[in-house]
## 1
Amino acid sequence: MTSEAGAKQPSEIDPIISSSVPEKGALEDKTGHQYQQGCLTQGCHARLKETRWIHGPISVGGCRVCHQAEGKPEEHHFKLTRSKEELCLFCHPRSAKHKSVHEPYGKLDCSACHNPHGGDNKSFLLARNAGELCAKCHQKHKVAYPHAPVEAGDCLACHAAHQSNQDHLLLREDKQLCLGCHRSLRDLLKGEAPVHQALVQGCLFCHSAHGGDFPAMVSHQSRALCQNCHQNVTDGLTSARSVHGAVDDEKACMRCHAPHTSVFDRLLRDPPAELCIGCHDCEIALPSGRKIGNIHEQISTAASVHGPVKEKNCLPCHFPHSSPNVSLLRGEYPENLYSQFTESTYDLCFHCHDRRLVTDERSTRFGFRNGDRNLHRVHVYREKGRACGICHEPHASKLVKLLRESVSFGPEGWQLPINFVKTETGGSCTTACHKKYSYDKVNPPAAPAQGEGHGEEGKPR
């Protein structure tokens, strides 16, 4: 039982110390027989009732509950009424032993943490708060991101002071304990969305309980933490030809993936295409000097959009983390504007597009033809073949068939105009590669003479 001393000011002297310091003018009370009265009123230990928090027996002058005189009264000798281990248990019985027990409590050494008479601190603690008291035995480490209760010295927000049925004297099972404060996450977990398997194993699988040197108190830097489980994703990063910039930045995996739960597949923060456009809404300069255009702007102003982009799915063409090919591509594709043709060189395109688009010399199957002469083959199927990207945008274009208005050429990135004009049955283009040439599927004009323009089929210009 405890009581507060009303308007009296807290003593500046520790009550345990003051209990052995006689006050002037009170020495004659030592030989009195009414110890329970004389000790605390005009006697030597009056200061014990001047503290903010007072042990119940002290507040009613019940010194004899714990102390018993022995020998001659004038000798002023006292002993405890019970053994030190049993004394507190007489009023504060201990429940059955729990899974984890605080060592002083297990040894019934209550005075290791508490002042037996009272004090200026709640629960008679021997320090101003639980945090300071715990720090006397449990070393507190300086970290960049401390857990808020630890920083506030409120150890009892998470731990029981005496014993608990949880490990580490926790008040509840660790995940439920965390959700008691992190209510927004608790509300998310109430739904049917998939949950990160690491969270199923408990918060401490990824987070440090008291604090750490990384944001959100994770135990390792973000990417290193994830690769502990997702080694298959990170194994290829060092040998990859291209690595997603998001994987290498400070947030790493957290930029695209939610760490706890998500309604989207693979714990993505947003639908895949929206997630990609969230970063690709401006021009991005790569370390190599190459620039990735503003894809969001390209799509929003486009007259034609590449099929996967239209379906809001970037993954048919790109790997999300790293790739053995340029630009995170899922298949091989020419890195330069010109490349000798092989089917494997255009593996990416042939995932979806009919190989005959390039391999057939004559065909009426495709639109880009002069009569039945396959003009894709004329451009691509040669030693100095023109890569698809010379004429076509990979994502979206203001022109039909993903055709470019211009193509970046040379080390300074000069925009070489294509000047494509579409007609009802064909079209024409004029570039720095050749003079104006027209094609028509119904009434084909004569093919260029050898050595002009496209050259003979299958031969370099």
## 2
Amino acid sequence: MEISNHNPNDNSHREPNLNFMQSTTAKIIMVGVLTLILLIPLQYVKSLIEERSENQKKTEETITRQWGDNVYIYGPVLKVPYQTSSSTEYAYLFPEKLATDADVQSESRRQSMYEASIFNAKVKFTGTFVNPDMSKSAVSPESLQWDRATLLLNTNGLKSIREAVTVTFNGTKYTMEPVAGENAADSLLSLETRPINLSGSHSGQMSFSLDVAYSGSKRLGIAPIGKVTEAKMTSNWHSPKFGGYLQPDKQAVTDNGFSASWKISQLNRPFAQQHFGRLPELRPYSFYVDFLIPVDEYQQNMRASKYGFLVIGLTFLIFFLIQSISKISIHIFQYTMIGLALVMFYTLLISITEHSSFRTAYLIAGISVVAMITLYSISILKNRKFPMFIGAALSGLYAFIYVIIQLENYALLAGSIGLFLILGAVMYFSRKIDWSK
């Protein structure tokens, strides 16, 4: 009779499963899955930042409605009626020479927790008109009614003008009044003088000087309508953005403000000095300055949150390498607590930012989370050497991300170099791990 040696209590057939669950591969899979799961609360944080950012935009709109919107302006334009066979039309003549000098005093204005840039601008236009050359037009010089000429100043809104607007033309001062429905081009409104009798005086140079004071926000734009336009702008704002059809010829930006100058000739732009019937759309050919808040605080929070996956992944990787090298067991629950602490960094960051600055909030949130994880690591790893390393690594990682957030032109370069160095360090410290177990 054959006796079986099979032991019913023998669990050796289960060892492969047990060994796999305790293997390095199984552990890294679980940590990877946990990292992906933590993207859910991280996405919630991003949604929260977007919601608060939308509130910021609504507040900016409220401030700009109350104070004044973006300012776009051009002028003065000499408007001369002429008679056709069926109706009265108008000729619009641009200056021969135009000099623009804008002095802009800017500030950031807060409403509740939100911020917007506003400014007061004093713009001075000086220059000359000359008798137009009508040889290339279908309008005869004799049809122009110089005794009914007026001067126009076009702008995107009259609400922003803070003082009465007067123009000195050929030595005489004229008041400019709003005109309803004057040329729909550019969706602009116009200020216009009463009729000026230029009969007999339009053959020579006609000089002008015009001052206008604006209160506005975010942007000041001017169209270069002179045959030769020389423009200058100075301001106390330290973070301008120059844009539009042409960049300034000279610019200087310091912590105390900026100055910029443009010199634009008729050859630099695709519109003529004379227009008949209606004015063209000139906004695409204007130059402007944006008075930017360089990186608003919600934008900085959003940029920080985009590095959340990197922070969680690298932190878990550090703990995993320590676990693999030191043979210290770290439970998946402990990984979860560490991951939630890392996510809490972003909720702390946005909440403190709303009552302070981004820099202060980043410092407080960073110190709090690094201290929490370091102290928790002492209880997990049962010594102080590895937790101190973790604290130093996390501090360096948060400092590295802060620097990237503050950089604008070199953010991609700095980030790429940093990640390359981090990858090299991971490859170095993981080289002795036995991945077969």
## 3
Amino acid sequence: MSASSPDTFVIAGKPYRSRLLTGTGKFKDLEETRLATEAAGAEIVTVAIRRSNIGQDPNQPNLLDVLPPSRYTILPNTAGCYTAEDAVRTCRLARELLDGHNLVKLEVLGDQRTLFPDVIQTLQAAETLVREGFDVMVYTSDDPILAKRLEEIGCVAVMPLAAPIGSGLGVQNRWNILEIVENAKVPILVDAGVGTASDAAIAMELGCDGVLMNTAIAGAKNPVLMASAMKKAIEAGREAFLAGRIPRKRYASASSPIDGTIG
């Protein structure tokens, strides 16, 4: 990696330098949303179509006034959908509101307590959306077989959970994430479960292309400062992955070998 060849990744044909994707919900107001997004250095921001005003209500503050599409890639998501039908309908609405915008984040939930994905409904919705020309970034479980199937359907990015949404538990099954990363031909981004900067760094050290988070930033005591911390953690984790860590060993290994020393 050098200044002449920036470390980018590509989503739906567009390169991005920031590997931190942020949500726009749960902040106290739009100004805090703006400040945290800027501190995170995010280029892609996800918007819950069912919960955020991006033009549906002209009498309410519009999120796009503080996060304009001219500066950010808006990623509408299907948060709150529990069936493939509802998810597809929500994506169609987003495309209409955003003048033909095709990039969407698909999530179909299966349980209100854990917010785990309904993988059967997710597969059905993904097939329909890809067929209709959407560029689908898909939230899913950390099942490597399912992740590969979603890639084969035509999703432009696969986004396995690290832990349940909003739990802050961090990466709970790093071996599954590693298996998904090593067998993927599309970007893999951890989505859900990150709690603090070290969690984000671990995801990146595993080789993920990026991390999407909302609660970890918006729910922090100081969301803007946490956004800045997450930005640094993503960058550090990525550099560590590219650098290649030393092997783990059971015993110590001297930093300075004694061979050839004086006396």
## 4
Amino acid sequence: MMAWIILITAGLFEVLGVLALKRVTQTRNRTSYLLLMLALGASFSLLSFAMQHISMGTAYAIWTGIGTAGSTLLGMFVFGESKEWKRVIFIGLILLSVIGLKVIA
């Protein structure tokens, strides 16, 4: 169970890394780059630890799913990107797939 919590945390750090990447494109300063390195470093480290207890394919799929869905939702609600119904449906499918992988793993 702890490995799953760590994997979810890794996915959340992945979202933070994407947010930091957005910040780097807007403000190229040391703080932005430091935040980017810390977020992605934490994400990869936690993913690596989770993969010691969860199969590689499952862990990677869930990690990328959290990163993809989280970053898309962040873009929609924080940065005013399109909230088209098709995007929302496909984000839901990603989340449903992540839940399905947890159930069968």
